[in-house]
Amino acid sequence: MNNSQKNKIIVGDCIEAMNELPAKSVDMIFADPPYNLQLEGELHRPNNSRVDGVEESWDKFDSFGDYDDFSKRWLAAARRVLKDDGTIWVSGSYHNIYRVGATLQDLGYWMLNDVVWVKTNPMPNFRGRRFTNAHETLLWCSKAKDARYTFNYEAMKALNDDLQMRSDWVMPLCTGQERLKDDKGGKAHPTQKPEALLYRAILASTDPGDVVLDPFFGTGTTGAVAKKLGRCYIGIERDKGYVKVAEKRLARIPEVADKRLVETPSKRKEPRIPFGTLVERGMLSAGDVLVSPCGRHTARVRADGTIISADHRGSIHQVGAAVQNAPSCNGWTYWCMNVEGRPVPIDLLREKLRAETRA
User: Fold this and answer.
1) Is 280 helix (H, G, I), strand (E, B) or coil?
2) Are residues 98 and 139 in the same domain?
3) Residue 118 contacts by C-beta under 8 Å, 6 or more apart in sequence?
4) What predicted TM-score, i.e. pTM, was given to this entire model?
5) H/E element holding 309?
6) CB 224 within 8 A of CB 194
7) Which domain covers residue 324, as residue numbers?
8) CATH code where residue 37 lies
9) What is the tally of structural domains in the chain?
10) Are 334 and 307 in contact (CB under 8 A)?
11) Positive/negative CA dihedral, 266, 269, 275, 277
């Protein structure tokens, strides 16, 4: 894909537009397709004020069959344009997400996660005949079971106060100053997504410079977040009114000045440093004593890069697992040096060597 196709909004039908893009040219797709809400009549609050819901023609389909056909066609076009190691996110409600999920699997996509967006401020169920609908579902898929897709585990963990990110995401609906308005002061788009939702999805599954495609661009939330995170975007939208709002929104967002601020290095992509290299470089010497974090177990370093603890000899990982009677062990974080009376993981020494390779 050439640069002239990036960071653009294509005005037109999403299926036709995707079919004109180069095959296998985008890294991620975020799609918020029509939900086919099947609304019957107007909805009013207890005070008889009218609820401003989704009434646009683009959300109306004559039958489930028509909706399934539409889903199959746009998802097939999306699959063609998605790179083999790319991923797709599809957002939906109980009205459509199960039908879309089946179509995804029928077309060969591989389900990675279903993420539940738990809304902290959902619209109440005014009629009192159902549970308050307080969540939406996002399906995250790769193109195949064995695809080498991007998942920025460290970034998600850091974003969540150093805890593994779960598949239930708690955040509010798009309200207040974030909610874009039209010339009459009403909602510019009835289903505008909060930027926080896109922030997490894009940060999780792309790297800086990657291309993110949104075939139902609306007022440009996907493009706005992609730009803030140093990614490229392609938006497809047939409603010229939405396009006008999106263009104005995107023009206000500055380019990322320092790309290092929007990337989280992955430990899996770091150069491999054998434990023996620490011994070769003199950072540790034969006979040095390593200690477990609790101080219960000790081991001595050998000249060949193995360690020995009582009857156990082998790599830092093998011996660490053996002394704990555990199936496995990350020796880099388990074994420590005694520095001024406190245990310091030997992983710090490995990080010093890695820093040399990055310099």
Assistant:
1) helix
2) yes
3) 134, 135, 168, 169, 170, 171
4) 0.78
5) strand 307-309
6) no
7) 270-358
8) 3.40.50.150
9) 2
10) no
11) negative
Place of tokens 């000790």: 298
Token reading at 317: 């990982």
User: Among 240, 247, 239, 212, which residue's Cα sits nearest to residue 226?
Assistant: 212
Q: Measured between alpha carbons, how far is 198 from 301 in angstroms, rounded to an integer?
A: 48
Q: Which residue has the tokens 């491999």?
A: 272
Is residue 150 within 8 Å of 167, Cβ to Cβ?
no
* Residue 264, pLDDT score: 82
pLDDT higher than threshold 80 for residue 118: yes
Residue at a domain's end among 267, 292, 321: 267
Please, which residues have CB within 8 angstroms of residue 21's CB and are 6 or more apart in sequence?
A: 1, 5, 81, 213, 234
How far is CA 174 from its chain centroid? 19
Using the Cα atoms of residue 329, residue 330, residue 333 and residue 337 in order, give the sign of their dihedral.
positive
Tell me the per-residue pLDDT of 278-310, one tens digit each, with 9 for 90 and over. 999 999 999 999 999 988 999 999 999 999 998
In the block, residue with structure tokens 């646009």:
56
Same domain, 255 and 294: no
What is the C-alpha to C-alpha distance for residues 189 and 181, in angstroms, rounded to an integer?
8
Which one, of 338, 331, 333, lies nearest residue 348 by Cα? 333
**Collapsed DSSP state (helix, strand, coil) of residue 277:** helix
Tell me how far the alpha carbon of residue 83 is from its chain's centroid: 16
Joined tokens for residue 119? 């809304």
